Amino acid sequence: MEETTYVYEGKTTTEALEKGLKELNLKKSDVEYKVIENEEKRSFFSILTPRVVKVEIKVKKDKNKSAENVQIKKEVKPLNEEEILKGKKNLEEFLEGFLKTLPSEDIKYEINNTNEFLQVNLSGSDLNYLIGYRGEVLNSLQTLYTTIASKGIERKIKVSVDILGYREKRDKTLENLADKLAKKVVRERKKVVLEPMSSYERKVIHERLQNHPKVQTNSIGEEPNRKIVISLK
Prior knowledge:
The protein is α+β, with helices and mostly antiparallel strands. It has helices at residues 13-24, 67-73, 81-98, 136-149, 166-188, 199-209, and strands spanning 5-10, 31-37, 53-59, 108-113, 118-123, 159-163, 192-193, 215-220, 227-232.
């Protein structure tokens, strides 16, 4: 069985490691780990994004399991009213200033909420530059907005961002791709390695195939080159 690696981040090495062990439902003795990015590295929108430590966790062969599938299934604590109101206020204050700095003059935003996350929808003309190639800029905005929404709140408030319905269209494309490749794996009885994807897009693929009777999925590699492998069960 192939060893699988996962990457988690936190303000310190200990925080990143503990986050990974909790989500994987494993003990420290079940894994090997190393720091792959320290506090000196900065990410997209670095002025507003806090410094992070990234830790690569490798699950020992006898404990190997798909962490991303575990994350999909784990129960998420619903947002309470105070968290929703605070998160929305944080986003509104930021967006009022941020959108004025963009070249598009007619951008409008709407913030909604579900039990588990806040949803930001942006609309206007010529917004492709906010989506980027395969949603790369959109994913970075989503990370940024999550950081902004969570300011002053004990836990992370997840934010989903969509622009002109791109997310729904992209999800459908990924689901169709997952179905097509699953059929190929069953037909040819060979595993398929997809090209690198964001964590969000990998999650779509995992969810689409998690109940498939004949194939399974897992992820390999390090960010930003982490890939999904579809193989026979």
